[in-house]
Every structure is written in structure tokens, then in C-alpha cells.
Specification:
By secondary structure, the protein is an alpha/beta fold. The chain has 5 helices and 5 strands; from the N terminus they run E-H-E-H-E-H-E-H-E-H. The protein starts with a strand and ends in a 13-residue tail after the last helix. Bound molecules: adenosine-5'-diphosphate.
Length: 152
């Protein structure tokens, strides 16, 4: 049977316990997951260095040989196609996420008909964790370690 390969694309600025949860739950559905850090044109200036984030995500999943980390700067659908990924994994926290994900997934379907988007609803205890809040807390010297699956 064909391997089920999913890409989990995002800015991951930074990668949080909310993201970790989606990846680990995704492993129950997919043989392989590629965490793909995109250069989002709307958020072109990163707060956390991309190389640091790659290193931290790799460290988080060091015990898994079916979780990969990569970066990309092209259409997500194109990247998925190049890496034989037929599933696009995303997390949903609230209606705002839904509105955004709904329109993106329709476009992705047009661009790559075989790419099936799969959404996992957040774990309630992690629902409020967002990269933007973590950046804000960190910027002003707050301790963000409890929101991250690794030490900064
Ligand atoms: P993007 O900038 O592309 O939205 P993010 O890095 O912010 O990327 O998020 C990547 C994915 O992870 C998105 O699908 C987002 O909804 C999901 N996500 C972020 N935080 C959480 C969380 N706490 N619980 C579940 N899913 C989450």
C-alpha cells in the first residue's frame, strides 16, 4: 500500500506544545509527517531564527524516524507534490482558524486535486497557545518555557 505522507506546514514562530500535539496525533493517521516551515509572505520577518527552530523541532522529535523537518518558500501544494505528500495536516482552534483554513484548503484543492486537507481539533488545554502570544511574552522577558516542548 502507498505510504501516507502528510505535510504539516506553518510558520512555527515558534513551534509550540499545540503544534507538537497535532503532530503526535497526526502520527496515528499517517506513516510520515513532514513539518514544513514556510516563509509566509505576510509574516516575512521572523522573531525566532529559522535555523534555531529547525534544531528545536528536530530535538523534540529525535526519537521518531518518521517525523521530518524542512523549510520551503513556494506554494504549499507544489511543495507537497514534490515530496509525494497527499495529505495536508492543520490544526483548528476556533472559528477564526476555520474561516482561514477553509479558504486556503479550497485553493489548495484547485492547485493539487490529490492533496487532501485533514484538520485536527485542538486539545482543549492547548487551545489558547498561539505563537503570537508566546512572541509577545518572550519579547517582554516573560518565561515561555511551559508553552514549548523544548528549552530555548
Ligand atoms: P500559519 O502561520 O501558517 O498559520 P502557525 O505556525 O501559526 O502557521 O500554525 C500552524 C498550524 O498549527 C495551523 O493549522 C494552526 O491552526 C495550528 N495550531 C497553532 N496553534 C495550535 C494549537 N494550540 N492547537 C492546535 N493547533 C494549533
Amino acid at each position: 500500500m502507498q505510504k501516507r505522507i502528510a505535510i504539516f506546514p506553518g510558520s512555527f514562530d515558534p513551534f509550540t506544545k499545540g503544534h507538537e500535539d497535532i503532530v503526535l496525533r497526526g502520527l496515528q493517521l499517517f506513516d510520515e509527517i513532514i513539518i514544513a516551515i514556510g516563509y509566509n509572505s505576510n509574516k516575512s520577518v521572523r522573531y525566532f531564527e529559522i535555523n534555531t527552530m529547525i534544531e528545536k523541532i528536530k530535538e523534540t522529535f529525535k526519537d521518531y524516524n518518521n517525523i521530518h523537518v524542512d523549510t520551503y518558500a513556494e506554494l504549499t501544494a507544489t511543495y507537497a507534490q514534490k515530496h509525494n505528500a497527499n495529505y495536508l495536516l492543520r490544526g483548528l482552534r476556533n472559528t477564526t482558524d476555520f474561516e482561514y483554513e477553509n479558504s486556503i484548503s479550497q485553493v489548495n484543492r484547485k492547485l493539487h486535486a490529490d492533496l487532501e486537507s485533514v484538520f485536527l481539533i485542538t486539545t482543549p488545554q492547548l487551545a489558547w497557545i498561539s505563537s503570537s502570544i508566546i512572541r509577545e511574552v518572550h519579547r517582554y522577558g516573560g518565561d515561555v518555557s511551559q508553552f514549548l516542548p523544548y528549552k530555548l
